[in-house]
Design a protein that fits this description.
Blueprint lengths: L4 E5 L6 E2 L14 E5 L2 E10 L10 E8 L4 E6 L10 E7 L2 E6 L2 H37 L2
Parallel strand pairs: 6-8
Antiparallel strand pairs: 1-2, 1-3, 4-5, 4-7, 5-6, 7-8
Length: about 140
């Protein structure tokens, strides 16, 4: 998974646009280069069983809102299990965006990866608590 998706941000209204644009869609101001995490939430989705010519059936599509408010039209492998508000990862391949549903395990890995050193502290605290409970339980059985 890529670390960021290329985007642009308006220095005036702070609107984030993906893919990058040279001018703000709201007013004629030159956009600044930006990047956005390839994670978002499904705003809408559908499966087309009779897609337009040039696409294979079934065609799974979704509108995904990334952090910062940029919305993308994305293709996917499937929409089974996806619902509005589902967390998905997004990847750009040849200027086409694809979404992948993130299950609980994927979201947990992402949380711990983002937590970094803070996550190590949380893990240490958790281990300490469990060890303390285990030691008290062991002493109570003697």
């Amino acid at each position: 998974m890529a670390e960021t998706i290329a985007a642009s941000r308006c220095p005036r209204c702070r609107r984030l646009v993906v893919p990058p644009a040279s001018l703000c869609p709201d007013h004629p101001v030159r956009m600044e280069a930006a990047g956005v995490a390839p994670l978002g939430e499904v705003v809408s989705f559908t499966t087309l069983h009779s897609p337009p010519e040039g696409f294979r059936a079934p065609l799974h599509i979704a509108i995904v809102e990334l952090e910062g408010g940029a919305r993308l039209f994305c293709h996917g492998d499937e929409t089974e299990g996806v619902k509005i508000g589902s967390h998905v990862s997004v990847e750009a391949v040849d200027a086409i965006f694809y979404f992948s549903h993130m299950g609980f395990a994927d979201r947990a890995r992402l949380f711990w990866r983002r937590a970094g050193a803070r996550g190590e502290r949380l893990a240490s605290i958790g281990k300490s608590v469990v060890k303390g409970m285990w030691n008290r339980r062991s002493r109570g059985n003697d």
